[in-house]
Each structure stands twice: as C-alpha cells, then as structure tokens.
Design goal:
313 residues, alpha+beta, Jelly Rolls, Arc Repressor Mutant, subunit A, 3 domains, four-stranded antiparallel beta sheet, Homeodomain-like_sf, HTH_AraC, transcription, AraC family transcriptional regulator, transcription regulation
Length: 313
Amino acid sequence: MNANTSADTIAQRASQAPQTELADRIARLTNEDGVHATAIPSLYLMRFSTPRPCTAVLYDPRLCIVAQGRKIAILAGDTYHYDPLHYLVVSMTLPALGQIIEATPEHPYLSLRLDIDMEQLRTTVLETPPARAADMIDRGLYSARASGALLDAVLRLVRLLDEPEDLDALAPLIQREIYYRVLSGDLGHRLRELVTTGSRSHRIGRAVQALRDHYLEPLSIDALAESLHMSVSSLHHQFKAATSMSPLQFQKHLRLHEARRLMLSEGLEANSAARRVGYESPSQFSREYKRLFGAPPRSEIVQLRSLPQSQEA
C-alpha cells in the first residue's frame, strides 16, 4: 500500500463514524422521499429511494453534503460528483443539470443542503487565514473532499434539530464553523473570491444577482457592464467562464425556470406562464422550454408532479 492510498484509507475510516450517524439522523427525520425543511431556516434534508432522472435545475448558493448515496451535477459538459467523501459548493445562482445516480429503498440517497448566507460568509472570510490570490475566474460550482472537521461540524448542526432550546444560540455559530471549514478546505478560495470586493468573481456574482433580481426586464449589456465598471467584452468573457453561458442565455434560463415554477406550484397553464415571464410567442416558449427541460411544458410538468417533491439536493 503506497503512502497516498494509506492516507486515503485513513481519511475514509475516520469519516465513517460521523457519516453513519449523519445518515441515521437524516433517515429518522425524513419519513418519506422528498426535500424536507427543518427548524433551521437555511437547512434542508433530502431523501430519495430510487435514482432520479437527469433534469435541469436552478441552484442557488448552497453547500450540499451527502451522507448516503451519490449524485452528480453537470455544468457545460463538466460533471461534478458528490457522495459521502465529497461535498458540492454552489457559490452563485446557476442553471445546471442534476441527477441522483445511487439510491435504493434499503439504502436511500440521504443528504442535506445548507443555503449560504452571504453576509455571514463575508464575516467568516475576515476570520480565516489568507488564501492564494486567484489569477482567473472559476466556475461558480465545484466539488471537494470532505474533511473530518467539516463532517463533525455538519453533524453537530443536525444534532441541534433534537435540541430546539439551543437552536437560536448555537446554530449560527456552527454554520459559521461550517463556512470556515469550507473556506479552509480544497478549493475554498473560490468561495472566498465571491465575497472579496473587487475580485472578478465578486463582480460576476453581482451580475448574476442583478439578472436574478431583474430577469423580467429588458437586458442592457452595456448598462450592466457599466454598473460593474467592466467592459462589455470582459463581462461576456468572465460571465461565461463562471456560469458557462452568456448573460442573455442566463436570463432566458431564469425565465424558463420561473415559468416552470409557476406551472408546477401555482397551476398556471403554459401560455399564461409564458406571458408572465415575458414571452410573446407561445410557440417560441414551447420550443425553448423543450430544449432546456427535454419535453414540452405540459408533459414535463405532468412528469414532475409524479415525482416526490423537488430533487434540488
């Protein structure tokens, strides 16, 4: 056994105990398949008993930890695996593909999602050791190896769900520790750059948020670039490097995801949802919806309603 294999084996054995307890707790707290809110507003628990089809999803900034099973996220043809040994970080809102690839009724996919509080993240960055300076913009999504310290903090956060009297005092502290562990871990500089004023990632994060906040409005690339003190060409280049798409494509994806939500959650017909998100042509909406989600609006919504809740895990 070489040194690297020995180190990997030791790390895997060290992580098995917290992972086992984490899986047991998530299984106990989720009695059916789906995404389950908790008493901690930013924390969600996931359980799925079968593999799920690959589907387009809209990821908001989050940390995903898997206790059992495996899932992949796909962005621009690149595949990011997350499983009991690897966690996923989404540092900015991103349309991507997601698929649960390992789950059975006996050993369901069990995971948690911690939505990232940007203000809390900024405060934590000030308390972490300086990271290497980034000389290029990175994708707003990555997976990295989960350390024992990170898993321990995540487990303590989930344990708090059985101690409601301690939630208000301790949950924010443990969440900051989780941010600290991610910032200090593999590729943590990517998350740091997002909240470092003046960095390329910070500017693109602001562009993403502006599009998210105003996705129904006509898009002026010139005005957006000017607001970020960037040239139009730099905005296009850096935005695509981070999100894999142009600002205009990104806005279109946001509109289609919102139309999907309106049909799924509010019961709107396809034509009404299309008008609500700014489409004047129903046929154009149907074509672009099918291109993104793999099926026309009506049939895709029927299929989604047959699945347990959302699979954004």
